[in-house]
Amino acid sequence: MLGQSLWKTRPALWSFSKFSPIARKEMHYALDQLASSSSDEEEIIGTPNMNHFVNRVFELHRVEVVETLNTLREQPDKAFSFFNRLKEDGFSHDVCTYASIIRILCQCCWERKLDSVLLEIIWREKHLGFKVMDLFEILEEGLEGEDSNLLVRLSNALVKAYVSVEMFDEVIDILFQTRRWGFIPHIFSCNFLMNRLICCGKVDMAIAVYHQLKRLGLKANDYTYGIMIKAFCRKGNFEKAVGIFDEMYEVRVRPNAVAYTTYIEGLCMHGRTDVGYEVLKESRESKIPLDDAFAYYVVIKGFCDEMKLEEAADVLFEAELYGIVLDTFPYGALIRGYCKCGNIDRALEVHDKMMSNGIKTNCVILTSILQSLCQMGRDFEAVNQFKKFRNFGIFLDEVCYNVVADALCKAGKVEAAVELLDEMKGKQISPDIINYTTLINGYCLQGKVEDAVNLFEEMSENGHNPDIVSWNVLVGGLARNGHARKAIDLLNRVKKQGLKCEIVMRNMIIKGLCIGGKVKEAEDFLDSLPDKCFQNDAALVDGYIESRLTKKHLICFLSWLIRDFW
User: Fold this and answer.
1) From residue 23, how far is each of 68, 83, 198 by CA, in Å?
2) 365 near 332, Cβ under 8 Å?
3) Which of 52, 171, 237, 536 has the least CB density, counted as fewest CB within 10 Å?
4) Looking at beta carbons, which pairs linking 524-533 to residues 24 or more positions away fall under 8 Å?
5) DSSP assignment letter at 204
6) C-alpha torsion sign, points 498, 499, 503, 509
7) Closest to 417 in 3D by CA, of 391, 437, 447
8) What mean pLDDT is predicted for residues 206-224?
9) Could you write out the DSSP letters of every residue in 433-456?
């Protein structure tokens, strides 16, 4: 019971004659309230009487707060609530009170609460009047008869806290200062630090920490070595990576699956997939532990990145032959590889095989397929594939919808593309700027300028601020369809909004007018520009070419040569 435990500590607490009479009276009152608690679950700060005490406690000396926390060591939840309530009511905790609550949290292994306290100290260190390392000094003084691992637990927690906010210089300083107290943090904390350094691109720093920790007596484990293999592979230094394997054998640490798989991944990432594949095969033959599914994936992806697609397909077949359970990623890598090289039929074969093996497809893979079909001029087939996927109940995102909408617009089926926009809304998929811009362009291609303008306004009303591409599409569409005045008005509207796309939009108007057969208007518009530039002249020449006005293009080109010569 809380009351019994506090009653036993009362004589020791009140033996401090240096406390003032007022302080002793306040502490006596507080302990009476704590002792009267009927349940261990009752919150120390939850009662009206304790509220009265807490509202006055900031008048007490910090030593008295430390003693109160000490009496609550066996009840960390109440100690933590007491500590926080003091802070909320204006009490300024110092290094001693922080050390007291940290001791309690370390002893009861409350990692999350300990992390929150340490992060608070880290962020407020300049305003607290003490440094983080001062906590070690305070806690070391009270270690007699206590858990000898307290400082190790604190250092581990500090490493984790500093690493979580990427304050790597500070955490490295702590690692090497802890040697003063005769220990270094646990290997798990050191592994956590080195791995995060690599993830943040600080590979050289991770390697330096590893070597320094070894000099300090750190005994590396299989994960430590795996992290170093990853570090050297990231640098492309495979000789060093092999050296780590040799070192593991010397100290009789068996490499784990992560170490081998990381080595294979490193080779594949640096264009040496053939070597990585050999390591994979040798590992299987030697019955070396591997993360088989991931290892095969990185090899397949590596061959795809090197556009060795038949080799990738052979590796995929081998994985299936061995009964390795693959997921979407290796199939997706191979499908995207075939799409990239224009072999869409082979991509569809692999996709059908994946689906028949019970592996679900996704919108990323489907986007690659649809885009490839459109690039090959097979827009009609892309639309049919889209409908097929949709009927299967596969989730299709706004990118998939946009690919098909663009294909429909180019085929002159703008209304069907607009229906897709409504379908997206019905499925709670919010159309983005790209979706709207595609349809605006479709309307412009069909000469339906009013519909394009209305859709442009709808896009703005739905919270999508038009980007430069959107403005250019609409301006160019207006110009092509003989609405030069409206196009120029839009240009002035963009200038008022401060968007820096004036040169490009001028060019769109010039080319658009030429394509729409308004060559004279394009020339007049160019002449009217007060600060026209070379790009505007070039746009007029492009307009001549697209309008097949080759004589005008030649005359203009010759005039440039003469002007530049003189």
Assistant:
1) 12, 18, 53
2) yes
3) 52
4) 525/484, 525/488, 532/506, 533/503
5) H
6) negative
7) 437
8) 88
9) HHHHHHHHHHHHHTT-HHHHHHHH
Q: Which two three-digit tokens encode residue 25?
A: 């009276």
pLDDT at 45 over 60: no
How high is the pLDDT of residue 297?
96
Residue type, 544: Y
Fill in the amino acid letter for 169: D
Model confidence at 135: pLDDT above 50: yes
Q: Measured between alpha carbons, how far is residue 297 from residues 312, 321, 327, 362, 514 in Å?
A: 10, 15, 9, 17, 52
Say which residues have a Cβ less than 8 Å from residue 68's Cβ, sequence separation at least 6. 27, 30, 82
Which tens digit of pLDDT belongs to each residue from 81-91? Answer: 888 887 887 77
pLDDT of 413 > 50? The answer is yes
Angle, helices 48-57 vs 76-88, to 10°: value is 60
How far out from the chain centre does Cα 117 lie? 26
User: Do 444 and 456 contact (CB within 8 A), yes or no?
Assistant: no
The CA-atom distances, in angstroms, between 20 and each of 8, 71, 97, 100, 104 are 22, 19, 19, 22, 27
pLDDT of residue 27 exceeding 90, the answer is: no
> Using a CB cutoff of 8 Å and minimum separation of 24, what contacts does 517-525 make?
517/547, 518/479, 518/482, 518/484, 519/543, 519/544, 519/547, 519/549, 519/552, 521/484, 525/484, 525/488
Q: Please give the helix or strand (H or E) that residue 396 lies within, else none.
A: none
Report d(CA 360, CA 419) in Å as an integer.
27
List the structure tokens of 323: 């009964």
- Asked if pLDDT for residue 113 goes beyond 70, the answer is yes
Looking at residue 501, its pLDDT comes to 61
Q: What one-character DSSP code corresponds to residue 47?
A: S
